[in-house]
Amino acid sequence: MTTVAAKHIIITTHYCPLVGGAQTVYDALASAQPDKIEILTSSTDYTTGQKVAGWEGFDASAPYSIVRLEEMRPPLVEGPVGFFRRLSMAAYDLLLRRRIVGRLKRLSKEKSYETIVLGSVDGLGWMMRPLRKIFPDAKIVIYTHGEEISQQTYSIRADQRRAGALRAADGVVTVSSFTAGLLTSKYGVPRERIELVTNGVDLAIFDSLPQGNIRSHFGLTSGPLVLGVGRLVRRKGFDTLLAAWPRILAAVPGAQLAIAGTGPLSEELKAAAARPEMGGSVHMLGFVADETLPSLYASADLFAMPNRTMPDGDTEGFGLVFLEAAAAGTPSVGGNAGGAVDAILDGETGRLVDGEDPGAVAFAISELLNDEVTRRRMGEAARSHALTQGWDDKAKQLLSFFKRLQEES
User: Fold this and answer.
1) Which phi and psi (to 5°) does residue 244 adopt?
2) Is 8-200+390-407 in CATH node 3.40.50.2000?
3) DSSP string of 93-151?
4) How far apart are CA 119 and CA 112, in angstroms?
5) In this structure, are residues 10 and 143 in contact, taking their beta carbons and an 8 Å threshold?
6) What is the pTM of this model?
7) Alpha helices in 277-390, H assignment, sequence order
8) Does domain 204-386 have CATH number 3.40.50.300?
9) Reading across the β-sheet that carries 256-260, which strands appear in turn?
10) pLDDT digits (tens, 9 = 90+) for 314-352
């Protein structure tokens, strides 16, 4: 763990070793600049109310400083909540906020920061006012990832609170041009206060991929392979991919589809994969360890995840899996929605299609599987593009943005 006083701190409601996109981003940025960035988070998973398993070991091995509070957010409550329960929850939330503010005041006596980053606008936007008082010389930045901007809030008041926090911040970081546009059009954040820092990739793990046949480990053959990786939720579009698959099989006999991931749609997708018209060509891999994924990406002829924006605004914030596939030299077919438009360079590193249209998905995948020259060219372009998207460069860009905010004071 670093002993150098960090200049910037990222505050997040939950953190590694919990798995998630935001956690991955903050860990990568802090790891790239361990002397300048530290993390303030919780040792409790608010989604379950339980202690995060293994957090002590994670913190001890991290190359940067991590400060843990017992809680950063009240536990989630599912189902209908009555009046007295709501009253109790509001009282607990108020008490928790007072504890957090007290800890921040103690922290201010130990350290000073140039930049304080709120990693969740909805969960931490309330901290804007107390942070201004406790750290009057610090710039306050909100880091956004996509769905928390595009997705509808549960009430008009909640949306007003979100807008107020975003407009009160000295700067807003976002991971896609799609979200940057929403910040301006939906919430009135001036464009000059928005910094677009697309997600990066850990290039080191893609430098030397195992040469062994990873396909056989998953029961896959040497035939054309389309791979999908992601949480099994509706916005990822794996249901559309499966709906398109019989047409792909007709156009590319011997093709096989592998989908890695878990989630609420797991049983539904397994049932679809087992339909007679699939001919046993679809393999639902379930959970695949991170250390295995790079080789799996590299073994595929094409990566596919036809993501789409849901009616409530839920969408793909960036689509890091597209960039990871690119780093392994595999082109992608993704949905023309959300942040995927930044992760895939349409016509160059892959194809963007309507993620709601099985016909469009089938056509794009079939065309690329049957055109080895174009597919190889896109794979080479994808790899070249990914090599410019390492986390070291992303962290330097972020620090440059922080510096500019200080210089504008």
Assistant:
1) -85, -20
2) yes
3) HHHHHHHHHHHHHHHHHH---SEEEES-HHHHGGGHHHHHHHSTTSEEEEEE-SHHHHS
4) 19
5) yes
6) 0.87
7) 293-299, 320-327, 340-343, 358-369, 372-386
8) no
9) 282-286, 256-260, 225-229, 302-305, 332-335, 350-353
10) 888 888 899 999 999 999 999 999 889 999 999 999 999
